[in-house]
Amino acid sequence: MSPLNFKGAADMPAFSRSADTMEWNHTGNWRFLRPRYLDKDAPCSEACPAAEDIPLIELLAARGDIAGAWQRIREENPFPAICGRVCFHPCEKACNRGEYDDPVGINSLERHIADSARRQKLTPLQPKVAETGQRVAVIGAGPGGLTAAWQLRRLGHSVELFDARQEPGGMLRYAIPTYRLPTDVLNWEIGLILEQGVRFHPGRVLGGNLGWDELSQFSAVFIATGAWTPNPLGISGEQLADDGLKFLEEVREGRTPQVSGPVAVIGGGNTAMDVARTLLRLGAEPTIYYRRRLEDLPALAEEVKEVSEEGIAICPLLSPHQISGTAGDLQLSLLPMQVLDDPDESSGRARVGTADKPAELRQVTTVYAAIGFNDSPGLPVGTTEPLGTWLRRLKTDEAPETTILLGGDLVNTNRTVITAIASGKAAAIAIDAALKKQIISEQLNAAQIGGKGAISLNRLQGGDRSERQRHVVGFAELNTIYFRYAGRTERPGLTLKERQTSFDEVQMRISTAMAMAEAERCFRCGLCDQCDNCYLFCPDMSVIREKDGEGRHINFDYCKGCGVCVVECPRNAMLLEEEPR
Amino acid sequence: MKKVIEGSHAVSHAVALAKVKVISAYPITPQTHIVEMLAELVASGELDARYIRVESEHSAMAAVIGSASAGVRSFTASSSHGLALMHEMLHWTAGARLPIVMAEVNRALGAPWNIWADQTDSLAQRDTGWLQFYCEDVQEVLDSIILAYRLAEQISLPVMVVFDAFFLSHTYEQVDVPEQAQVDSFLPPWQPADFLDPLNPRAFNQMASPEFYMEFRYKIQQAMEQALEIYPQIDAEFNAMFGRSYPLVELCPAIAGETAPLALVTSGSMTGTARVTQRELRAQGILFDLIKVRSFRPFPTQQIRDLLGNYSKVAVIDRNISLGSGGIFANEIAGALSSMEQRPTVYPFVAGLGGRDVTQTSITEMIQRALGSTPPEDILWSGLKA
Question: Staple A423 to which of A144, A573, B121, B355, CB 3.0 to 4.6 Å?
Fold first, then answer.
């Protein structure tokens, strides 16, 4: 009965209720705030120089969609199997979960995804793009050059890849020992790139048998020849020391030198660590000497830990002073160092100087120097200027009309695989822009994820990442009440005995079950993962799930803009905005 | 079947026998044992119900408002501060005409903290539209839950079954736990006329303008009055099936068929003490008739007038106080009697606050004060260390 007809209490229902549905009453018109689904950037993606879409990759992995996860990584980085082994994973350092319990094991997940893809014999998706007919020369087939080649092919350009060595890979092949990066893994991922129509030219040395008469015929040239020139020790008897990097290269080429007895390794970076670990596996007794403190070691913390586990001593605050004797019977004199009061302005590390103590003598068969490396030779004379975070642009009279970019270890102060990959991708974007007469810096900016230089091709090309808000979600912006504490999955490893006597890969794989559990730990900062909190909390039942279960929308007929959905979103994948009037 | 059980567990048994479908509660001493056992029954599958955990009593009541609105039999329990926190939702329950039953264990309110028996917590909710039945012993507690659902669902109003902290909640007594089949026969499944139904969407409890609000209140008052009318039939049916009867007001004369010079009005567990005191004083030649008030809401005004109008003196013991006024039962009784031309003198005792024992000695002392020649004051404190 309509209220208009009520004559008195006897006509009325026991409590107030409508006689019929009230759906005609669009209470949404009370709204002055409006919720919106809006994905954002995650700090891990920002910290990854290659801008891998980590939250989405972990979401796909947690759902068991390994193929999807793998293709998603390859969009930005063609080397997940390699990076899943050797990357220094700045993503994990930036992971919001680190402020909650422990960062997500992004690195071991990356390896799991790539290894699974390899087992399943997956092949990369190749976007259908028209061949541009433009020819690009890439010099140096390391991670930077290979990445540039891969992305340039995907952009439709013709690529010639030159390298001084016989096989592609650069440092990946010739400097990183197989116990960290097995050759079959390396060959697989490089093969996937070469199969896309990249022509590889081995034994071509820039400044040697590869000259500018040939290179100036290309529309653009990317030079990523790396840093293979050892820094001199600068001490008496220096000629008696061997080059650590060359030693690693020889071992990888199968020209393993005879080593035995006590061997000194000078340096504190990853090369020094790898030289010492290789020596150990070859039966020598290596000791690492480093002029600063243990906490100043530039090598990866994980590798320093593995070095110590394997029983290799790292002696800090000892600086080489003199080498004497004859090959195979050397005396190494080391000066004790001390920490000086004023820190090094440029690096922030503690500065060291000689201590007032007598020199220490070591009787060794060999001394390997690994105290840093300089640009490989062969660069043309010219001037360079920076271009974005990862590149320098070279102007030379050898080829004044050609776009020439430098990248990789030639440019990056942090000389790592992933920064080289970022360089390669930036080079592809920059060259593509130059060939299309676009403004290079604008294209590089348009590709940015966050503010640390990470660049995404997906974002640049108008993929789903371009629809996300350019805002990096911080820990304080999450609603962590919906997350549970869960221990991080650590990779199992070989036994010490196995490690000391073989070049088998030290770090073992994680199982699929472990990987899915680890991927489930990801907060997916800024990325809707269909958790349905908004749906459950909406007091007006105005969150409508799409029929396929992916995605939802707001029924603004009834949404009053209370904002509960936005507040209860665990991962900040929503936004509350003022209602437009 | 006769069992020796705790007062709290008598409630749990009754709730299970009533085949309640949704339980939501927040623990508070001395109520916790009730929902603890219910949670166990639900977890073990013995009771086919949903147990909704919540973060507060306000939410507990909101939860059962939801479930009862959807048309299922619902239960909650609380006490003292918990009940106070529910206050807003109590009004809503009655206004929405939801027959929710709550076990309310009388406990004093702080400050200072006190977990013992005191009726002020439930009496402070007297205007919320809930029926309130005060119980004397554990058997009555159990039976009242079953009676409460039957009555509540008939008049569409919520019922509080109220009993004293520890004296009843934590005391083991021999109790006759009824058979399920008998309870099923006495208490059929609830079939509400109106309930939230997605297939027939309607808005419940919409705003009622000044044009209509008063009529909705009038209808609740009518339902309260209807409760007074129909309760005796329900109680008679219960008596026929289970052999126990719980009138809204019970007269227990010192000598059957006679009127003593004094009527003593009690409620709750102290009534048992008063029964013993009555027998012992009768042996000494001191006579008083005992009136046990079981129903505070609806207040059985006419019955009170009929039963008490003949006495010259009426003593009321309140284990509660409306601060700034006095004992709450005494106030209600004085109010009920005020329209009578010939009315008794009311002796309003306040005793046993915060769980202090009301003993035979203290009842005897109150009887003697009322029978004496000193005229009553507005509050007669019993056992106060002034």
Answer: A144
Question: With a threshold of 0.90, does the pTM exceed it?
Answer: no
Q: Is the pLDDT of residue A320 over 60?
A: yes
User: Does B206 contact A6 at a Cβ distance shorter than 8 Å?
Assistant: no
Q: Do A20 and B206 touch (CB under 8 A)?
A: no
Query: B195: which chain A residues are within 8 Å (Cβ-Cβ)?
Result: none
**The tokens of B37 are what?**
């056992």
Residue A4 confidence (pLDDT): 66
pLDDT in tens, A428-447: 999 999 999 999 999 999 99
List helix spans (H) across B165-323. Answer: 180-186, 210-242, 270-283, 301-308
Length of chain A: 581
Kind and range of the H or E run holding B313? strand B313-318
The answer to whether the beta carbons of residues B98 and B129 sit under 8 Å apart is no
Dist. CA B78–CA A120, nearest whole Å: 60
pLDDT at B312: 95
State how far the Cα of A399 lies from the Cα of A212, in Å rounded to an integer.
7
> Is the Cβ pair A16, B207 closer than 8 Å?
yes
Distance CA B149, CA B9 (A): 18
- Which of B202, B219, B223 is opposite residue A21, by nearest beta carbon? B202
Measure CB to CB from residue B194 to each of A12, A17, A23 and give the nearest one: A17
How many Cα atoms sit within 13 Å of A143 on the Cβ side? 31
DSSP secondary structure string for all residues of A316-350: -SEEEEEEEEETTEEEEEEEEEEE-SSPPTTT-SP
3-state secondary structure of B349: strand
- Cβ(B232)–Cβ(B247) below 8 Å: yes
Region A502-514 average pLDDT: 91
Contact B221/A at CB under 8 A? no
Give per-residue pLDDT as tens, B344-365. 999 999 999 999 999 999 999 9
Contact status of A5 with chain B (Cβ, < 8 Å): no
Nearest-CA distance A542 → chain B (Å) = 15
Q: What's the whole-number mean pLDDT along residues A66-84?
A: 97
Contact B202 A14 (CB under 8 A): no
Asked whether B80 and B109 are in contact (CB, 8 A), the reply is yes
Closest Cα in chain B, distance from residue A518 (Å) = 30
Q: What is the mean pLDDT of residues B234-247?
A: 98
Contact yes or no for A534/A552 (Cβ under 8 A): yes
Cis peptide before B298 (omega within 30 of 0): yes
The ipTM (two decimal places) reads: 0.88
CB contacts of B222 in chain A (<8 Å) are 9
Is residue A156 pLDDT above 80, yes or no? yes
Under a CB-based contact definition with an 8 Å cutoff, are residues A136 and A152 in contact?
yes
Contact check, Cβ <8 Å, A15/B97: yes
Q: Please report the pLDDT score of residue B241 as a whole number.
A: 97
Which of A3, A20, A22 lies nearest to residue B212, judging by beta carbons?
A3
Residue A16 has its nearest CB partner, among B208, B218, B222, at: B208
The answer on pLDDT for A342 being more than 90 is no
A6: confidence class by pLDDT, cuts 50, 70, 90: confident
Token pair of B331 as six digits: 């106030």
From chain A residues 14-53, the ones with a CB under 8 A of any chain B CB are 14-23, 25
Give the list of residues 6+ apart from residue A546 with CB closer than 8 angstroms, or none. Answer: A552, A553
Q: B194 and A19 in contact by Cβ < 8 A?
A: no
